[in-house]
Protein: GTPase Era
Amino acid sequence: MTLDYHRPEHPETYRAGFACIVGRPNAGKSTLVNALVGTKVAITSGRPQTTRHTIRGIVHREDAQLVLVDTPGLHRPRTLLGTRLNDLVLGTLAEVDVVGFCMPADQKVGPGDEFIARMLTDVRTPVVALATKAHTVPQPRLVEHLIAIEQLGESFGGFADIVPVSSLEDYQVDVVADVLCSHLPVSPPLYPQGELTDEPENVMIAELVREAALEGVRDELPHSLAVVVEEIETRPRRPNARPEDLDLLDVHVTVFVERDSQKAIVIGRKGARLREVGTRAREGIEALLGARVYLDLHVKVAKDWQRDPKQLQRLGF
Ligand SMILES: Nc1nc2c(ncn2[C@@H]2O[C@H](COP(=O)(O)OP(=O)(O)OP(=O)(O)O)[C@@H](O)[C@H]2O)c(=O)[nH]1
Structure:
């Protein structure tokens, strides 16, 4: 982290700090982070709990720098993995300057939201309620939703603000940024300009592979998949390579599943599915690294990894 106290171009009122975006699974958190940052840093999907890692995106403005921490879907702990995720989330919530709490307009405010609201009262960070996916419902339903959010806030000490937003339809994303920034402390920028994420490349690569591997089979393996990037090697350049030729990288990745049956699903008939997964993930990885990539994918069974602390540690949780 760069602390830069001496740059005169930042006004004295410049604010900088951290915001955490929370909400139950599928609430639109990753999509909002992407819209705020303006580039694809977090991985989105139509299915719950694909964001396992805390991913930061940084919003650079004339008057403020907002460092966004995207959290995994908050949920009641069911497995050891769930417990760890919630610990991670609570620790993060206590450290940030403001929390954005997403409640999607296409779903009723319910027990899942109450659970999160209760957790938030423990950490004393200002909470901005965000009525996400606002443009996916008719106006009367949105109004009903905003009232339900207000009532939820009243029973848990009140929200600092309530903002309707539609990330994909680009409605009020800038207002969300304004409101979140208004809760940041006066501070010089925390990161150099232009930096979008400090997520290590291998975590982003793992997420790209995970997203590709889950494509179309999320019902069969929603939580049973973990991805580890084992090694990234640069192949020596050929002597006759032109300067504009891209480097070629060997990226070795292991996909862990819990059972043999799941391994068969990921690999597919005669390896056909795994080849598709590889092709899809490789395109994203090449775009991310700006190099040509040879992706070496392996699938291994790590039995009951969600419940085994040693396996969890090995898989980076
Ligand atoms: N039309 C519309 N769809 C949205 C909007 N925001 C999110 N979605 C969709 O809702 C689904 C879930 O969005 P995500 O951003 O992945 O949700 P999340 O809260 O990060 O989900 P988890 O990673 O499971 O916690 C995706 O299919 C998004 O495309 C929005 O503003 N408008």
